[in-house]
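Can anyone check this?
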Amino acid sequence: MPTRWTPSPLLSASAALHGAAVLGALAVPTAWPWAAGALVANHALLAGAGLWPSSHLLGPNLTRLPAAAAQRREIALTIDDGPDPEVTPRVLDVLDACNVKASFFCIGRIAEQHPALCRAIVQRGHRVENHGFAHSNAFSLFGPGAMRRDIARAQALLADITGEAPRFFRATAGLRNPFLDPVLHGLGLQLATWTRRAFDTRTGDPERVLQRLTRRLGAGDIVLMHDGHAARTGNGEPVILAVLPRLLQTVAERQLQPVTLSQALSS
C-alpha cells in the first residue's frame, strides 16, 4: 500500500539550503558566488549518494535483513535481470533440489516476453519483485515522471502475470537519484539493494564469484546474483549455474537459512 512520504534528513536539508541560497542571493546580491558554490556542493553530495547503492542518504534502503531475521540465521538470495528462458529454469531446478527459496527481481519488458517463466517462479515458492520495466542504464537520470511510469508499468505487469504484486524494487545497478524515494512511497514499494554482490555479469570465473559471495557471508546478508545477463565461464556455462550449487553448500555448512525478502520481513 502507498505510504506517506517523509523526506530523508539529507533531502530536507537540501531543500532548506536551496531556499536559503536563493533568498540570500536576492537579499545580498554580492553573495551569489557563495550561494552558487553551496548549491554545487550540495548537488555533488546528492549525486554521490545516488551512485552508492547501499546509501541510506536518499531514503530507506534495505541493505541487509532485520535483526530478527539475522537472529534466525536467515539470509536472502536475490536474483536479477531475468527471466531468462535458458538460465532461469535451471536456476529453479538447483533451488528446488536444495529446498531453497529466492527473490527474483524481474525486468518488466523481459517478463512480458516470458510470462510463463514468471508464473513458474511463483508456483515453485519464490517471489517475483520489481526491477523496472526498461532496465535502462540511464535510470538514475530519469525525472520523477519517467521514473514512476517505468516502475508502475513493471509493477502492474508483474502483478497481472503472477497474481502477486511485488513488494520490493531494485534500481538498475542500484543507481538512483532523489526522485526515487517519493516515487516508491507512492507505489507502495520498498527499495532493496544488497550486502554481497557477485559481479557475475562481468566476471566469468566461478572461483572469483564464489569467493566474493562467501567471504564473511553470514546471517542477515542479502546476496545478489544474476540469471539474466549472466557472464559465461570458459566453457560457455552461465556463471550462476557454476556457482549456485557450491554457494548453497556453503550456506548449509554455515547453518544459514535462505528465505525470500518478504519472508524475512514478515516472520
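Reply from J.R.: I decoded it. Residues 9-27 form the longest helix (19 residues).
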